[in-house]
Design a protein that fits this description.
single chain, alpha/beta, Glycerol-3-phosphate (1)-acyltransferase, seven-stranded mixed β-sheet, 13 helices, 11 strands, 34% helix
């Protein structure tokens, strides 16, 4: 394909300037033929800058009257010269990382707007406004209704004072009227400072932590708040996990226990763990092994006294005849209990039996003042101290069982 660069014949009519003879046809054909490039000719040097590339495209006075044949395909730059080396193109397209970054920013803005965390910015030149959230009025009213009982001040572990206050009547009913808890030794609870309450675990469902917490807050002279550590599976149970967390329970791990004790709070731990609440009826009130003595390490490192605590009565609220482990994995729980009422009565089988409860708080044990924080790395000493605490709690449980005459009436 050929075209004429504008000269004296801008309209391409083929007319010659006045006073000049028209060239013969054969000569004209030869002038249009592409001249052969000599073998010794060097390839043109590539423009190094964008300015040079632009100025090289401007026709010079000598080329105004020369017919140049332009090919549709880009011409080769010659041997040894890359055609891409003639400088960047004028129309710059964003690279792939830049396009991905723009897409991520756009999606993030849309999510924040949908969650009402950021108002959409509208400018006069943006055109049509963005589509609002479907039934936006309904969702706004629902969010206000759902959050009506939530407190503005929730601590770092999830305790909500408003929810805890609303649960007080239920805990009061369970403590005084249903389980008729009788507590002793509350004077051993320290008035101020940190303290680690170590108790036996029982009851299939963790009612014991709630009853200990209620007894210390309402029966002790100081009226202190206590934070029980609960197993992981409790937090995965529908409603119960969220409720326990809102009233003060904390996920059981050494890091959470140390953080609470360093804040001079009372913390309750149950070293038996799942083995404690999973005891069968024939194994009731026989303390299981206290793990690897993690509570001893925590007490030594934080300088906290240990208050041994015995709970009697919780083993009878759900007398476990047997348990199924292989089926429980599908529900995310350690075992499926089989009791005289569950699963025979369905959801009603989860209602605890009204047994008589006893709580006993022993004298504090100050292991940290005798051994120091460095003793937490001595595994033999830690296991020895853990066994001493377990024997102390077992003796307290046996003493309470001797005093009790009836499971239901005490």
């Amino acid at each position: 394909m050929s075209k004429n660069i504008l000269g004296d014949d801008p309209f391409g009519t083929g007319a010659t300037p006045a006073g000049e003879a028209a060239p013969p046809k054969e000569a004209n054909r030869k002038s249009k033929a592409k001249p052969k490039k000599p073998a010794s000719a060097k390839p043109p040097s590539a423009p190094t800058t964008e300015t040079e590339a632009a100025t090289s495209a401007i026709p010079t006075p000598e080329s105004d009257f020369i017919d140049v044949e332009v090919d549709d395909a880009p011409a080769s730059a010659g041997p040894g010269v890359d055609s891409d080396s003639y400088g960047p193109s004028i129309d710059h397209e964003p690279s792939l990382p830049e396009r991905l970054r723009e897409e991520v920013n756009h999606i993030e803005e849309r999510v924040l707007e949908r969650l009402h965390l950021r108002r959409p910015e509208r400018h006069p030149g943006d055109g049509a406004a963005r589509q609002p959230l479907p039934l936006e009025f309904f969702w706004r009213r629902w969010s206000k209704l759902a959050m009506r009982d939530r407190s503005d001040v929730v601590d770092e572990f999830g305790r909500d004072p408003n929810v805890a206050a609303k649960m007080e009547p239920l805990l009061e009913f369970l403590y005084h009227n249903y389980f008729r808890v009788q507590a002793s030794g509350l004077g051993h609870i320290p008035d101020t400072g940190r303290g680690l309450i170590v108790a036996n675990h029982s009851g299939t469902l963790p009612y014991d932590g709630a009853m200990i917490m209620h007894a210390i807050k309402h029966e002790s002279p100081t009226g202190r708040s206590m934070r029980p550590l609960a197993e992981d599976f409790v937090f995965y149970m529908p409603y119960l996990g969220v409720l326990m967390n809102r009233i003060g329970a904390v996920r059981a791990c050494p890091e959470n226990a140390e953080r609470l004790l360093n804040q001079d709070q009372l913390v309750a731990v149950f070293p038996e763990g799942i083995k404690g609440i999973g005891k069968l009826w024939r194994e009731r009130y026989r303390l299981q092994r206290f793990g690897r003595g993690g509570f001893i390490k925590i007490a030594l490192r934080t300088g906290s006294p240990i208050i041994p605590t015995a709970v009697v009565g919780a083993e009878e609220i759900h007398p476990m005849l047997t348990k199924i482990s292989w089926l429980a994995k599908s529900f995310g729980i350690p075992y499926l209990p089989i009791t005289p009422t569950f699963p025979l009565l369905g959801p009603l089988g989860l209602v605890p039996l009204p047994s008589k409860w006893y709580l006993a708080f022993g004298e504090p044990l100050y292991f940290h003042s005798e051994y120091g924080p460095d003793a937490a790395d001595d595994r033999i000493l830690v296991n020895k101290l853990a066994e001493q605490v377990r024997q102390k709690i077992q003796e307290m449980i046996d003493a309470l069982l001797k005093q009790r005459k009836s499971v239901l009436f005490g």
